[in-house]
Specification:
With 326 residues, this protein is α/β, with parallel strands linked by helices. The protein is 38% helix and 13% strand. The chain has a nine-stranded mixed sheet, sandwiched between helices. Helix 2 (75-91) links the parallel strand 3 and strand 4 (102-106).
């Protein structure tokens, strides 16, 4: 039986109490361990899919026999990532399966029509989806603004795009149980707030992209929390993940003091990918669905991310924005 996993990249950098958790998970996962029935891995990098923890996750799972589908906003970068991963696999000492594949598809989370087109194409061509990893996203140092759909760019890419994609692929996940959903968040959710009057709107000022990023990371945890409740009894489980501070080597928009901080405090991408891989593959964590994981351990997020009423309201709000309500 083949299994499909979806990953959406999130190029995150964080500061704060999460530094206490750095470095614990770098080699927790045995690279020789097979993925059981996992035979297909669906990988969606955005933006710049040729670097970061998403690529590290894809390489790791492909080494274990998974099938990798790169869903990239930029075709040229996607092809570069695809060739890089194929090259890494060909050189890998740990690769044990001859059925690993790397395939490219196009997806832009900043366009809701692209998300819908991608889901339609994927469902028409792929018979299974077993693990969906929503790891793609944009970062506050990237240029902000408003999408063509009329929403704040950071909020749409980091939350609404994932919410819609998960909704469109959920029936496929239910047909392939047991299946999992992993949603990348961040310790920066501590600074987030959910103001339903403004969270989806773009704005001006140097702090707006930063606040939008923090808001979206809080929304990611609340999304996972409410999704887990709605999936009870279906044998589909979901998990929110903080990958830790990691070094993407892309500091174009990063202020000097943050770039220096990141250089000394960040982990490498292989280590940053471990918690996503853990939540996607570890046996026996099904009862922890809806939980928040850091360094392959279940931790409590900040109190605002444990507000079940807020999670329900955000779910209903997201549905209205996306036109998913009748």
């Amino acid at each position: 039986m083949n299994v499909t996993v979806q990953l959406v990249l999130d190029f995150q950098r964080q500061w704060g109490p999460q530094f206490l958790w750095l470095g614990k998970a770098a080699w927790l996962l045995d690279p020789h361990q097979r993925l059981g029935d996992l035979g297909e891995f669906f990988f969606c990098p955005f933006p710049g899919g040729n670097a970061g923890i998403g690529k590290a996750t894809a390489v790791d799972l492909a080494r274990r026999g998974a099938r990798v589908i790169l869903a990239c906003r930029d075709k040229a970068r996607g092809e570069s990532a695809m060739y890089d991963i194929r090259r890494d696999l060909s050189r890998s000492f740990f690769q044990e399966s001859g059925n690993s594949e790397v395939i490219l598809m196009i997806l832009d989370l900043a366009s809701l029509s692209s998300v819908r087109d991608f889901a339609q194409t994927f469902l028409a061509s792929e018979p299974r989806l077993d693990i969906l990893i929503n790891n793609a996203g944009t970062y506050w140092h990237c240029p902000g603004g408003q999408t063509a759909d009329g929403f704040d760019l950071v909020f749409q890419v980091n939350h609404l795009g994932h919410f819609l994609l998960t909704h469109l692929l959920l029936d496929q996940l239910k047909r392939c149980v047991p299946s999992r959903i992993v949603i990348l968040s961040s310790g920066m959710h501590f600074f987030g707030k959910i103001d339903f009057q403004t969270i989806h709107k773009s704005g001006e000022g140097m702090w707006k992209p930063i606040q939008s990023y923090c808001n979206s990371k809080l929304a990611n945890i609340l999304h996972a929390r409410e999704l887990a409740k709605r999936l009870e009894g279906t044998n589909v489980t979901c998990y929110a993940v903080h990958p830790g501070e990691w070094n993407l080597h892309t500091h174009t928009h990063t202020p000097v003091h943050l770039g220096l901080r990141q250089t000394f405090l960040s982990r490498n991408c292989d280590a940053g990918a471990q918690t996503s891989i853990y939540c996607a593959t570890e046996e026996g964590i099904e009862s922890l669905s809806g939980g928040y994981f850091v360094d392959c351990h279940l931790l409590e997020p900040w109190s605002k991310a444990r507000d079940d009423q807020l999670a329900k309201k955000l779910w209903e709000f997201s549905e209205r924005l996306l036109g998913l309500t009748t």
